[in-house]
Amino acid sequence: MNNEEELSRSLKSRHIQMIAIGGSVGVGLFLASSKMIEIAGPSVLLSFSITGFMVYLIMRSLGEMSVQYPVSGSFSAYANEFWSPLVGYVTGWSYWFLWAFGVMAEITAIGTCMKYWFPNIPIWVWALASLVMLTLINLVDVKFFGEFEFWFSIVKVVTIIAFIILGFALIIINFVNSGFREIEFSNLWTHGGFFPKGILSVILAIGPVSITFIGLESVGLTAGETKNPEKELPSAINKVLLMACMSAAGIINFVIITSTLSACNSGIFSSSRMVHTLASQDCAPRFLSKLNEKSVPVAATLFSAVFMLIGVGISFFFPEGAFNLLLGMCGMAGVFIWMVILITQIKFRKTLDSEAVSELKYKSLWFPRANYVCLGFLAVVVITCLFSPAHRLSALTFPIWLLVLVGSYYIQKRIKEKIHG
């Protein structure tokens, strides 16, 4: 299950931890936090806790396969190998779709944030400048990309931790704000209770909350470019969720911009690696699998970046609603990827005998019960997204996207059969 051309193994543990954080902690999380609190009130903490644990179980399933087979195509390559080429094809292009539209949303958000300081400069100018800069970073060298992502992610992690500490400090000193209302823990249950919208609101918030965790699976795509995947991937998976869960606080313009640039950077990396893998499997034009002398998939990176220019156009024609429109298209793609990871791992285990299972270097938890519980959880996520205006469009239209991919797969297969007799 190796790529035709080897990518450079230059990423360290700190790099892959921050790549995953960079992908999941973007502007969508910061701007959507208030909406999630509106849905569930203080009980949104339960929604985050439940979702975080479920996502951790999914990442463990991915980690088991990634440590055993450290290839850059990750879950798409595993689906191709252990499930079917059709599922691998649909998974790969769905993930590329997720990040293509995700980066479009993020660069649009960068332009919106920059208007705070430069109100006379159009949003699309900042969107274009951000895309060009991040594409160039991804073209230089994977180690350079890793360092850039590490430091950009550090900014938001440190700021989030600082805000959490500040919040606890204000509670401890019993700070009184400008409205003469004390900041204290009792506010969690004295103003309508811990469940002001009812217990059902915890479930309703799970859909939007789950979408904010999408991006953590990008840690699997680093497997083919990690120096020591057996050691570094488990370490990253075990640490990254805790740091990502800290992101429920802290909204300042600078942090939002750095978070967004980081998410875009991670998105360009993930989409280019997925296209490179698809091309290596003859599921995309072959030239997209080519690497330069530094083992960077230049053609795949430029291909993804050119498509992302659509986001610049959308921000030009629809400057006010572009972000929500684009972000809403990404939600179901991420949930679908998680489902594929869980089912693929079940199929992967079926290829192993008891001795091979005992020799796995990094095992998922509570297999296979955890897989079925997580699949049920993801079904709930899909249902709750139908009740969320921001994600309803994605939930209703994503099946059409899947049908288009299935159709294109069989058309491509038929053409190949005719060419090769």
Question: Short description, anyone?
Answer:
With 421 residues, the chain is mostly helical. It has helices at residues 13-24, 27-40, 44-68, 74-82, 85-114, 123-140, 142-172, 187-190, 200-212, 229-245, 253-280, 298-317, 322-328, 331-350, 354-358, 369-385, 389-419.
Descriptive notes:
The chain is mainly alpha-helical. It has a single domain, classed as Amino acid/polyamine transporter I, CATH 1.20.1740.10. Helix content is 71%, strand content 0%. Helix 6 packs across helix 7 (142-172). The relative contact order is 0.20. Mean pLDDT is 76; it is low at 246-253.
Give the SSE map.
Blueprint: H1 13-24, H2 27-40, H3 44-68, H4 74-82, H5 85-114, H6 123-140, H7 142-172, H8 187-190, H9 200-212, H10 229-245, H11 253-280, H12 298-317, H13 322-328, H14 331-350, H15 354-358, H16 369-385, H17 389-419
Helix pairs in contact: 1-7, 1-10, 1-11, 2-9, 3-9, 3-10, 3-14, 3-16, 4-5, 4-14, 5-6, 5-11, 5-12, 5-13, 5-14, 5-17, 6-7, 6-11, 6-12, 7-11, 9-16, 11-12, 13-17, 14-16
